[in-house]
Amino acid sequence: MDARNPRETVVKVSGAGVKRGDRWLVEGVDLTIRRGEIVTLIGPNGSGKSTTAKIVTGVLKPSTGTVERAPSLTVGYVPQKLNIDWTLPLTVKRLMTLTGRYPVSAVAAALDATGISHLANDEVQHLSGGEFQRALLARAMIRRPDLLVLDEPVQGVDFNGEVALYDLIKKIRDETQCGVLLISHDLHVVMAETDTVICLNGHVCCQGSPSSVARSPEYLELFGARAAATLAIYQHHHDHTHLPDGRVMESDGTVVAAHDHHHGHDHHDHAGHDHA
Amino acid sequence: MLDDFFSRALVAGIGLALVAGPLGCFIVWRRMAYFGDTMAHSALLGVALAFLLNINLTLGVFLVAAMVSVALLVLQRWNTLSTDALLGILSHSTLAIGLVLVAFMTWVRIDLMGFLFGDILSVSVTDIAVIWAGGAAVLVVLIAMWRPLLASTVNDEVAEAEGLRPEVSRFVYMLLLAVVIAIAMKLVGVLLITSLLIIPAATARRLSMSPEQMAVLSALIGAVAVTGGLFGSLHYDTPSGPSIVVAALLLFVLSIVIPVQRMRKRRLEAANGP
Questions:
Q1: Please, are residues B29 and B36 in contact by the beta-carbon 8 Å criterion?
Q2: Which of A99, A200, B14, B155 could bridge A43 with an S-S bond, Cβ 3.0-4.6 Å?
Q3: Looking at the complex, does the CB of residue B157 fall below 8 Å from at least one CB of chain A?
């Protein structure tokens, strides 16, 4: 599927459920992911978020319901946990071609886009949490996926890093026009660009735009009025991103060296660093 | 060249090392050392059954080792005992059943020591042909499924979500392991096979920058260990199988010591520098 029609449906799940023994891990899942759309799954632990993601990627066959996937769908997957044994010598560069063969130029481009070119020859075991998540995003991005599935991609990353990763996800979405399914580790914060929030608790209890979900009675019942009051949407308050290699990415996506960058904004959420 | 028992042993041992190294890397990466041991121990049951049913020895060992890995996969699905405990049960019960069966078969004379510790000096030209042909076949399959197997080693979910089939590559890998154990048993014996799989791979780790490099290096390191061990056993009149393992161990210790010294030297230079 090379023709990248905007709004084309990538995956449509209807009435899907997965049963293990006598227990439903999740049931009654209806969701549609279109190109260029970001769908965020929220819900308490054990509410079936990862199971739902597995139904979408095709790893799990649902016990009931149907999954319609666009033909020859390319999936990019960023798992929740990835423990790479120390005994495996794996550089960031080699990680890029883990599940497929890609030209050197594509590897360089993906590393550059995620701001980790300077780490290309480092072993993945030596990366920090944020650097590793960037490497995983680069790896998923290089596939030019039709569907990008991210399982708690900002877990274990500090707030500034979280903001930068969300920016990166947005950038990947904008550049590749892929559909994005994002599982959020946080019940109250979803990415601003999210088109649809799906709130899971063993079943889909509500879905819609972030603001409509925050007002829905099902969400209030599940998380309480206090939670609804704090359902925050991550917004862009800045016009640039600091890449880990010291360069700066402007809001239009261009990357410049730090000294060429002029701070033309009044609000700055990268505390604690100096600009020479 | 193959007229003399020593060169035959050398050719057979190197052939085995070349395939055991790359295969052993996955054992190390996937933390399957105990699994390799279990399969190797089950080889004795394979020997006993081969004698009982009067089938080819290598075939018998391969079949039993493959069956043990299938049994493990099935038992793991039940989710009752931990993999560790399951392996402990399979490993020692198959070894014990093999020993008991051998004792029952009073009509055949079995050189038990030969099967437990190997007898590389008695390999025939036919054995060499089996080792090199079998080894080459294993390497061809391993190279063909390298990417999916490596991807599933890093993360099963990623491999599966992105369209590779980790279950298939994992199962094929187990079969390859069974083949290598079957052809290795005669050389180093069921108790020492896993050392040839694990020690060269562990030795290669510190010297490698990529998985592929580590696979190639472990094959070479294994070949050096076989050569060194065999010459050592000739010189000191020690048992050949254990001598090979000792040679491999020495190389491993060297690989640990050398980079440390180099690092120390660098640190000293940095400290003394301007």
A1: no
A2: A200
A3: yes
Of B147, B155, B162, the CB nearest to A82: B155
**Considering only CB atoms, which chain A residues are within 8 Å of B30?**
85
Q: Which amino acid is at B108?
A: V
Helix axis angle, B211-236 to B240-272, nearest 10°:
120
Report how far residue B44's alpha carbon sits from residue B102's, in angstroms, rounded to the nearest whole number: 9
CB distance B86 to B14 below 8 Å: no
Answer for the pair A210, A41: CB distance below 8 angstroms, yes or no.
no
CA distance B159 to chain A (A): 7
Which residues in chain A have their CB less than 8 angstroms from residue B202's CB?
87
pLDDT digits (tens, 9 = 90+) for A166-203: 888 888 888 888 999 999 877 667 777 888 888 888 88
Chain A / chain B CB contacts < 8 angstroms? 71
- A240-242 β-sheet, strand order: A240-242, A248-250, A255-256
Q: Which of B77, B146, B158, B206 to mutate to test the interface with A (most CBs of A within 10 A)?
A: B158
- Count of other CB atoms within 10 angstroms of residue A58: 16
Q: Would you call A252 exposed, middle or buried from its count of C-beta atoms within 10 A (0-12, 13-18, 19+)?
A: exposed
Tell me the whole-structure pTM to 2 decimals: 0.82
Given an 8 Å threshold on Cβ–Cβ distance, is B158 in contact with A59?
A: no
User: Three-class SS of residue A69?
Assistant: strand
At A72-109, the pLDDT tens digits run 889 999 987 788 888 999 999 999 999 989 999 999 99
Give the C-alpha separation, B189 to B77, whole Å. Answer: 31
Q: Which residues contact A185 (CB under 8 A, 6 or more apart)?
A: A152, A154, A155
The count of other CB atoms within 10 Å of the CB of residue B27 is: 23
